[in-house]
Amino acid sequence: MGTKHHSSDTVSDPKKRRKVGFSKVDEGVQPNDCIKIYMVFKEDEVGSEESFSIEPVDLSPFFEEDGKIYGYQGLKITIWISSISFQAYADISYESTCDAGKGVTDLKSSLQNIFADNLVETKDDFLKTFSTETHYVKSMISDGKVISNGLDAHFKADCSELEVVRVEGSAMGLLYCRLVPLVLLLVDGSNPIDVTDPDWQVYLLVEKKIDEQQTPQKLFGFAALYRFFHYPDSHRLRLGQILVFPPYQRKGYGGYLLQAITNMVVADNVYDLSIEEPLDSLQHVRACIDVPRLLSLQAIQPSLTATVSRLKEENLAKRTQITRFAPPSETIEEVRKTLKINKKQFLQCWEILIYLALDPVEKYLENFRTVVLDRIRADVIGKDTGASGKRLVEVPTEFDSEVSFVMFKSSGTGEEVKEAEIEESDKVKQEEQLQKLVDERIEAIKLVAEKVRVTSS
């Protein structure tokens, strides 16, 4: 058998030894690090970095299994979204591609996870949409129903130039599909609604067109509500999505849209209105709308006056049990029937109403803080101290010592309830967390109260 010859010189002479190299491992790139997104209203804004930039949520769920982009060097993706037609174009550039063990990400497929059919193939075709679809929004709302009449005039936005339109049928489905990418980009963890379900209703906040102007009609935002049957002959509405587009945020448009929906709920005699998992910012706007409505409702004044008087007279620092300052059930029902505010929202507003009625508030702030603390303690831990209810106990684990806990419910049957033994350090930490929640809640109450005082003066 023959053997492969090895030169003795190659082995003995270090200068002639072969150099062994290792290819660089492709660590990938985070989508948010290489993607920039802009909203543009005119054709000449495309390509300009001075256009309105959008800060999207985490884009990694739309790319690969681990959320990264692989196989590109010097990758830059610039996406332009038209605020006229809500179609998009992606400008993709890179220095080179190389499969370094993780493959090469199919960028088109990944972007279609977000934009679907709204992604236009070429820049020229995208630019043409600014002329061919100038009246896209107008055509979609032409058969819609205007609902925004009789709104209060305390919004920052110019109400005379706005209207809210409810769209239905095929027009609603087609337009909403154009808006889905913005929902995915701007609302973390969001899912599109089922446009084939007739119980979904979409309301659009648009620019009011008085004459036949040739300029495009602006769409500022939208809300999607779901209709539920309520026995025996009514229905409830739940706000599932509400979004004001980035160029128009913090200008009062969201409040205008929510106020219009609130008025519509009352006019249509809906059973009540709820909001699905509202963010703190949305809850603030909602409270700023509902608190003035409640202040003008005479039916709640006797209950509110009695509650405030009791809070001023009692020394809650010496309480022996959880304080109860909730409104009576008949007041809760009257608010639902008249203003269509559900119980959960009314109880949130009730604390703000009490705060507004305390004068001077500084004199009674400790009592008020106790009321808020006891309400939060009941919500988080249990309805009664020393009685049956929920118990939240932190326990150390290998997973995450910061957020690990066990919640259980004890059952009282007239006999003495056996309570869990909680370490003193855990009790202290639990109390600190409760106090933090109270601080946050009171700060939120103060912000709403200041806003209400300003608008009512």
Can you lay out the helices and strands and say which pair or pack?
Layout: H1 8-12, H2 31-34, E1 35-40, E2 52-54, E3 72-73, E4 76-82, E5 88-93, E6 96-97, H3 107-115, E7 119-120, H4 123-132, H5 136-141, E8 145-146, E9 162-167, H6 169-186, E10 200-207, E11 219-230, E12 234-244, H7 253-267, E13 273-275, H8 280-295, H9 301-313, H10 329-339, H11 343-357, H12 365-380, E14 389-394, E15 405-410, H13 424-456
Parallel strand pairs: 1-4, 5-7, 12-13
Antiparallel strand pairs: 1-2, 3-6, 4-5, 8-9, 9-10, 10-11, 11-12, 14-15
Helix pairs in contact: 7-8, 8-11, 8-13, 9-11, 11-13, 12-13
Features of this protein?
alpha+beta; 13 helices; six-stranded mixed sheet; disordered N terminus; globular; five-stranded mixed sheet; 457 residues
